[in-house]
Amino acid sequence: MWFAVLAALAALACVRALVLPPWPQAQPVSPERIALRLSQVGLDPRPLPSRPMQQAEGLGLSELLAWRLPEAGQLQLVSVHVRRRDDFQVAWITSDLPQLSLTRRRLDVPLPGVASGTIQGRPAYQTCLVFQGHSSADSAVTLAALQGAVDRQLRTRTDRLRSLVGFSRNREFRCLLVTLRSTTAQPPPVQAWNSLIASLQRSQSVPPLPKSGS
Q1: 61 Cβ neighbours under 8 A, 6+ residues apart
Q2: CA distances from 58 to 37, 88, 98, 142, 161 (A)
Q3: 3-class secondary structure, 123
Q4: What is the pLDDT along the chain (214 residues), one digit of tens a residue?
Q5: What's the rounded Cα separation, in Å, for the pair 75 and 38?
Q6: Of the candidates 69, 130, 139, 210, which lies 20 to 30 Å from 89 by C-alpha distance?
């Protein structure tokens, strides 16, 4: 009985792997929602040109959004969807993205779940936010921490079974990659980083802004 069930699950997983494309789809980021949250904490976001991101097998990226934050630096946001569990780490996600790849990286600096280093010669902070519903988000950069944030979303036996088959949206390796790069030789202010992350952790709960003329 159990062997038949396991065989059926394995067959379904194989079919899903064959049917689905190797390029996962990243969720789009709403610049209006982000700008609203940043303004509410006094960061005065000034938009910079957005850029499309090149897709890769096993990795989906949304459009790269950017803002200049006076006295804080340059903020860059990109939504990430990783196909394979073992690739769900910031170092792998950014390995082919020089504008987002940290060198001389230090973990848990200045805070747990954050990495610091330099990007293109400028000091920077970086993390990835894993959202759970519309309440808050976990901040992490390493494989173990990001996997743990996703695993905590599996609350029931039914969720685990559906995830094993591969049809559950409760277990997807997605996060919002947040990078704050200084425009000077000094690291970004820690207080500004804290305000930034606090605002982004709640950004998904902000309703879309009305369109002009509506």
Answers
A1: 26, 53, 54, 55, 78, 79, 80, 81
A2: 31, 10, 19, 18, 23
A3: strand
A4: 555 544 555 555 554 544 455 668 888 889 999 999 899 889 999 999 999 987 788 999 999 999 999 989 999 999 999 999 999 999 999 999 999 999 999 999 999 999 999 999 999 999 999 986 555 788 999 999 999 988 876 664 555 555 555 554 456 899 999 999 999 999 999 999 999 998 998 765 443 333 434 3
A5: 11
A6: 69
Q: Is beta strand 73-82 parallel, antiparallel or unpaired with respect to 173-181?
A: antiparallel
Residue pair 74/68 in contact (Cβ under 8 Å)? The answer is yes
| 123, 192 Cβ separation under 8 angstroms | no
Long-range contacts of 140-147 (CB under 8 A, 24+ apart): 140/113, 140/175, 141/89, 141/90, 141/91, 141/107, 141/113, 141/114, 141/115, 142/89, 142/90, 142/107, 143/86, 143/88, 143/89, 145/113, 146/88, 146/89, 146/90, 146/173, 146/175, 147/85, 147/88
Of 138, 166, 135, 169, the closest CA to residue 152 belongs to: 138
- Cα 28 from Cα 176, distance rounded (Å): 10
